[in-house]
Specification:
There is one protein chain. This protein has helices at 3-30, 39-69, 75-99, 106-131. The protein has 136 residues and is mostly helical. Helix 1 (3-30) runs antiparallel to helix 2 and helix 2 (39-69) packs antiparallel against helix 3 (75-99).
Length: 136
């Protein structure tokens, strides 16, 4: 297994962990009873975040498979996936900050921050791969 393939494999597993953490927060978000809360729209937003991450995960898997099939260097894909994931990781931090003030939903905020951290680490791996030369 090539080094780039191994690192992309690690990054893709971090994205799966990020998806799992977001999914775990949705039931708690739906049970939010704060006066100004709109739990249905927040749950829809997090469901869309899961969908976007699933698409990014599929792109990671496609990149790994393409690397196995050919010797073509796909550095542009590494950079594109890394930047895209970094942007979506930073967007979800806004949701984590919104739930940070809710005492009953503090766990949701922690899970969302952890999910964003996984996204940032996976995107950092992808961006670093852009600058590294392929090795066995």
């Amino acid at each position: 297994m090539k080094r780039n393939e191994r690192l992309l494999f690690i990054a893709s597993r971090l994205i799966l962990l990020s998806i799992l953490l977001i999914v775990l927060t949705i039931p708690g978000i739906l049970s939010d009873t704060s006066p100004n809360a709109n739990p249905k729209s927040a749950a829809i937003g997090f469901a869309l975040a899961v969908l976007i991450r699933l698409i990014i995960f599929a792109a990671y898997i496609k990149t790994i498979r393409n690397n196995r099939d050919s010797n073509v260097n796909r550095r542009g894909e590494y950079l594109g996936l890394g930047i895209l994931l970094l942007i979506f990781g930073l967007i979800i931090v806004d949701g984590a900050v919104a739930f940070f003030s809710h005492e009953k939903l503090l766990y949701a905020s922690v899970l969302i921050f952890t999910s964003a951290f996984c996204d940032v680490v996976a995107s950092t791996i992808s961006i670093v791969l852009f600058f590294l030369k392929p090795q066995e």
